[in-house]
Design brief:
Elements (H helix, E strand, L loop, with lengths): L6 H7 L11 E2 L12 H10 L4 E3 L4 H17 L3 H7 L21 H15 L4 E7 L5 E7 L8 H4 L4 H4 L6 H15 L6 E9 L12 H4 L8 H4 L1 E11 L6 E11 L5 H12 L5 H4 L6 H13 L6
Antiparallel strand pairs: 1-5, 2-4, 3-4, 3-7, 5-6, 6-7
Helix pairs in contact: 3-5, 11-13
Length: 309
C-alpha cells in the first residue's frame, strides 16, 4: 500500500472529520522518502536558519545511525535527482550548494552530531525528528532538522514528551495519546509506517510560520478566487524504529497545491473534512475564516467539474 507523493494522493489517505486517529499504513522501503526533491530550497533554509537543526546529548547515537541509514537508503533507492546527475545533467539542488555550518555548541561531540543530522536532512526532502525513550518508556523529542515546519517552532517542542508536543491539537490527550504511546512502545525495527495530515493555508511557502492574525490572513479569500488563494498543505509522515539506538525516526515531507490544481473530488473531500472538524480544532486551523469560501468554491466545482477558478 502506498501513501503517494502528491497532495492528490495523500488526501485519499487522510483523515476527514470526526474522532482523531493515527491512520497508519505500511510503507515499502523503496517508497520511504520522496523521490524527487528540490534540495536547493532546503539548502537555503539551512543556510539562513542554522538553529533549525538541534541535537540533545541523548540523541547523538541515534543521529549517527540516521546518517548511516539515509546514506545507505539513497544508494539503494536513488532519487530522480541522482538519476539526473548520473546522466550528466546539471544539478538544481543542494548537492552543488555550499551550506555554511551552524554555530556549534560548546561540546565537540554535539557539534559533530548537529553536522551529521544537518547533512542527512539536506540530502532528502523530509524533515527529520528523533524521539528517544527515557527509563519509563516515555518518548521525548531529542533531535530534529526542521526546515519546513507547519506552524510550529523547534525550540518550543525540543525536549518535550509526546503528549505535551501535541497539546495544541484539541482532543489529542483524550482520543489519541494512549494509542500513540502504545504504537511507539511496540514498534519493531524494520517496518515503516506512514500517515498524512492536511491543512488549508493561504500560502504555498514551504516554511509555513504565519505571524499575522488568521482573520487578516484569509481576508482576501472569496468563493471566486479560492482556487488560487487557498492551498492544501499535506504532511507525508513516516515512523520507523532505529535498530541500534532504539530511537524512533519521524519524517515529515511537505507537499502543497492550490485548490485549482486538484481534482473536483479532492476539493470536495477537503471541504467536507473542514466541515467535520470538531470545535476547538476548527478554530486552531483558522477554518472560520475560509470555510464558507471553500464550501462555495467546492459546490461550484461539483456542478462544473471542469471549472478552474
Amino acid at each position: 500500500m502506498s501513501l503517494g507523493f502528491s497532495v492528490e494522493a495523500l488526501l485519499a489517505r487522510a483523515r476527514g472529520g470526526g474522532a482523531l486517529r493515527m491512520g497508519l499504513v505500511r510503507v515499502p522501503e523503496a517508497e520511504w522518502l520522496t523521490p524527487d526533491a528540490d534540495l536547493a530550497a532546503r539548502a537555503a533554509v539551512f543556510a539562513a536558519e542554522p538553529n533549525c537543526v538541534q541535537v540533545l546529548p541523548e540523541a547523538e547515537a541515534a543521529v549517527h545511525e540516521v546518517g548511516e541509514m539515509l546514506e545507505g537508503w539513497t544508494s539503494a533507492f536513488p532519487s530522480r535527482l541522482r538519476e539526473r546527475l548520473g546522466e550528466g545533467l546539471e544539478p538544481s539542488s543542494a548537492s552543488s550548494t555550499s551550506v555554511p555550518p551552524p554555530t556549534p555548541p560548546a561540546n565537540g561531540r554535539g557539534a559533530k552530531a548537529v553536522a551529521v543530522l544537518r547533512t542527512a536532512a539536506a540530502g532528502v526532502w523530509e524533515d527529520l525528528c528523533i524521539l528517544t525513550p527515557d527509563a519509563s518508556g516515555q518518548y521525548w523529542l531529542t533531535a530534529a532538522a526542521l526546515a519546513f515546519p507547519t506552524d510550529w517552532h523547534l525550540a518550543e517542542k525540543l525536549d518535550q514528551a509526546l503528549t505535551p508536543i501535541h497539546a495544541p491539537i484539541h482532543g489529542y490527550a483524550e482520543q489519541l495519546a494512549a494509542g500513540v504511546d502504545h504504537f511507539f512502545a511496540t514498534l519493531q525495527p524494520g517496518p515503516i509506517f506512514g500517515r498524512t495530515n492536511w491543512f488549508v493555508v493561504a500560502s504555498d511557502a514551504w516554511r509555513y510560520l504565519p505571524q499575522d492574525d488568521p482573520e487578516a490572513r484569509f481576508a482576501h479569500v472569496t468563493a471566486d478566487n479560492a482556487g488560487q488563494t487557498l492551498f492544501v498543505r499535506c504532511e507525508r509522515q513516516t515512523l520507523r524504529r532505529l535498530p541500534q539506538s532504539g530511537a524512533v525516526l519521524f519524517t515529515i515531507g511537505i507537499h502543497v497545491e492550490p485548490l485549482d490544481r486538484l481534482s473536483s473530488g479532492a476539493v470536495a473531500r477537503v471541504a467536507q473534512s473542514v466541515g467535520g472538524i470538531s470545535s476547538g480544532e476548527h478554530e486552531r486551523r483558522a477554518a472560520p475564516f475560509y470555510a464558507e469560501a471553500l464550501t462555495r468554491y467546492a459546490e461550484r466545482r461539483n456542478r462544473s467539474p471542469e471549472l478552474v477558478a
